[in-house]
Amino acid sequence: MRVAVTGSSGLIGTALIAQLRLDGHSVSRLVRRGATSPDEISWNPVAGTVDLTALEGIEVVFHLAGAGVGDHRWTDAYKAEILNSRVQGTQTIAHAMTELDSPPHVLISGSAIGWYGDTAGAVVDERAPAGSGFLADVVQAWEAATAPASEAGIRVVHARTGLVVAREGGAWARMFPLFRLGIGGKLGPGSQYWSWISLRDEISALIFCMNNTALSGAVNLTGPEAATNAEVTAAMGRVMGRPTVLPVPSLALKVALGEFSSEVLGSIRVIPAVLRAEHFSWADTTIESAISTAWRSS
Q1: Which one of 18, 110, 232, 278 is most buried, by most CB atoms within 10 A?
Q2: Counting beta carbons within 10 angstroms of the beta carbon of residue 112, is it exposed (0 to 12), middle (13 to 18) or buried (19 or more)?
Q3: For position 49, what pLDDT does the model report?
Q4: Contact 190, 264 (CB under 8 A)
Q5: Beta bridge partners of 270
Q6: Which domain holds residue 274?
Q7: What single DSSP character describes residue 113?
Q8: How far apart are CA 175 and CA 177, in angstroms?
Q9: What distance in Å separates the CA atoms of residue 250 and residue 189, rounded to the nearest whole number?
């Protein structure tokens, strides 16, 4: 199939494109500049423009672009960038798809388990309503921005991704060096739930959503069961053969991270009910397996 990907230079986009091409698909990358190679399509999400001629004939769109949630301290300006980069980009790609003579038949649009807010110890799945907080508000607006595509009859999947376990990016890219030095430990109380997924399962799940025409709407992309931060910490120690006795106090996190500390200390206990019902098969079913896979990756 002919596939287009936004956010192609990110952690997930890079791995997804590699796998799609390995599977024999023709992949075009949407870039925010003039296209310089045959596999590029120019777009400008701020201006709301896409090279429609180059997009014509694309059968599947993976929309993964957006400013990194944990890349900077949450100033008012950066919070606006987090929101706008998702909503503007999604609106742009959704509108563009409807303007084509032969629209793509599916939009796999990036989303996040931030939809659910802080669930404490409560287990939630795709049927749960939106929670409260900045990220929950962002995800609601993000998903709503796909409306032009769904209203045009295009199948839309909201891929609500959890914390991706990978050495190349995300939270674990920061954690692995610390634990390797023996200075890793639980964050805050350690009782907060982290809903995780290995990078290879994230890619497999995205492709599963592409191929399974029965899927639409919200799909949680997480491992089979969430793990507490203390369980994550213990698994890191076992995999890396390092001590994990240096906890980071909640107050220190709040001082260092500001408002973003609420996401580190908060608890989101998500289960992937839709993937389970559709018999998706995980390669990494435990947090220790996911960490081991990532640690041993090249």
Answers
A1: 232
A2: buried
A3: 96
A4: no
A5: 124
A6: 2-295
A7: G
A8: 6
A9: 7
Whether residue 222 is predicted with pLDDT greater than 70 in this model: the reply is yes
- The token pair at 140 is 């609601």
Residue 197 sits in a domain of what CATH number?
Answer: 3.40.50.720
Q: What is the pLDDT of residues 82-105, one digit of tens each?
A: 999 999 999 999 999 999 999 999
Neighbours of 21 (CB within 10 A): 13
Tell me which residue of 234, 233, 272, 284 sits closest to 123, measured CA to CA.
272
Amino acid 266: pLDDT = 86
Question: Where would I find the H helices in the chain?
Answer: 11-22, 52-55, 76-98, 134-144, 147-151, 170-180, 199-211, 229-240, 250-257, 261-265, 273-277, 287-295
Please report where in the chains the tokens 């929101």 appear, as a residue: 83
**Reported confidence tier of residue 263, pLDDT bands at 50, 70, 90:** low
pLDDT (tens digit per residue) in 227-257? 999 999 999 999 999 998 888 776 655 655 5
Does residue 206 have a pLDDT over 90? yes
Residue 15 confidence (pLDDT): 97
Task: State the Cα–Cα distance between residues 30 and 88, nearest whole angstrom.
Answer: 15
d(CA 116, CA 177): 30
- The reply to whether the predicted model has a pTM over 0.90 is yes
* Buried b or exposed e, range 233-259, using 16+ CB within 10 angstroms: bbbbbebbebebeebbeeeebbeebee
| Closest residue by Cα to residue 1 from 105, 90, 98 | 105
Stretch (H or E) spanning 156:
strand 155-161
